[in-house]
Amino acid sequence: MTDAPLRRSATFTVLTTGYVGSTGPGVAATVSYVTDADRHVIFDPGMVADRDDILRPLAELGLTPDDITDVVLSHHHPDNTVNAGLFPRARVHDHKVEYQGDQWTNRDAEGHELTPSLRLIRTPGHSPEDITLLAGTPTGVVAFAGDLWWHADGPADDPVAPDRDLLRTSRERVLATAALIVPGHGAPFTPTPTTPR
Q1: Looking at residue 151, what DSSP letter applies?
Q2: What are the sequence ranges of the domains in the chain?
């Protein structure tokens, strides 16, 4: 069985391209907007130099924070989550719960579909609670993979990963499905045989 979403109608825009360590002055998350059907999703609204780095490109798409229906958090590190509160009406998804307002619904992220083109899968490795959003688009499956990869070059050995073998297994799982990977702190990239496993 494939992890790929059943349909291919989602579209996406990278709102801000992140950086980390030697690739930038500090750390910033790659924050993405994904849409399908009536869902407007922000993936990993984390640290950025200025909140306008998220809100300005969103406004250029004709959207306000109140238009966002869902926020997906790849994991619970602050550099990937700190701006989740910008979207007060959104359902917030993590590895085991969907939160909204003062309510939560327990559900495993594994295989959870936001729409037939948007599927969550568990991809632990960088942290025990990592998840990936797989978006079926007209040009293929896009994996919003959080910090499974910080950028196209890896790092090959994630210094934060508590279990290197688990990280490798999750990377292989994503690589088996994705035509394009949006990493946690860099630009989208097309996987190649040299993509860190």
Answers
A1: B
A2: 11-183
Q: Under 8 Å CB-to-CB from 18, ≥6 apart: which residues?
A: 24, 27, 28, 29, 30, 31, 46, 48, 184, 185, 186
Yes or no: domain 11-183 corresponds to CATH 3.60.21.10: no
**Rounded (5°) CA angle 71-143-172:** 130
CA–CA separation, 39 and 77 (whole Å): 25
Q: Give me the sheet containing 113-115, strands edge to edge.
A: 113-115, 118-122, 131-137, 140-146, 180-183
pLDDT in tens, 35-91: 999 999 999 999 999 999 999 999 999 999 999 999 999 999 999 999 999 999 999
> Can you give the pTM of this predicted structure?
0.96
